[in-house]
Amino acid sequence: MPNENLIYVADSEFTPYGNKSEQQIAARVLAISEYLITRKVKAIVVACNTATAAAIQTLRNKYTIPVIGLEPALKPASEHTACARVGVLATQATLDSQKYQDLKDKYGIRLELVEKASPLFVELVENASMITPKELTLIEKELQPFINAGIDSLVLGCTHYPFLTRAISSIMGSKVTLFESGLPVAKEVQRRLINQLNRVNDQSSIHYYSSNPTKSQAMFDLILNSKVAIKPF
User: Fold this and answer.
1) Which of 48, 89, 90, 230 is catalytic?
2) CATH 3.40.50.1860: does it fit domain 74-180?
3) Active site residue 83
4) Is the pTM of this model over 0.85?
């Protein structure tokens, strides 16, 4: 979708969501979505597994535009595993959600699932400017239950975790395949908007917003590898 304009809203003032109640999370997701609706967006992507579990159905009931959410990539992991042992790394809120329980009932019934909540990984992505040997030691300790279980597939069930893919892969080894939801979600957005895409070769733009721009700035610059303007939301 090279000709589309994007609006990205980071709720930096209220994250992490993983330790908040479903009601608190849903209220934040609704507030952000209401703002996006005022900007006349074509679709809304809830780019967070925890937020999707807490609020996706509310948004779909409220709005007529496509609302696309994220869920842990348990289906592809279940289809890939050769040993029927799959690890799921997610926030506690995601692991406790009914949406995740439904996924387990559908795709995990014949699997040995090793589940772990990892607020540490969220903190590393949000606050560590680089991964040093000290951080690698913490990451390896966090991954130890998966290593001990001998899994061959690991689901990264939080949108923060893929930023640690290189470190996780180096520890888990080449025999463990990592699964995350970013690319499947992008393809679903494209599919849902196929008849509404801008066919004119205009220069697209990305506008960044945050509920705490000061808190967000360093992380945005690091991830995007350039300094960007972040407006308050």
Assistant:
1) 48
2) yes
3) no
4) no
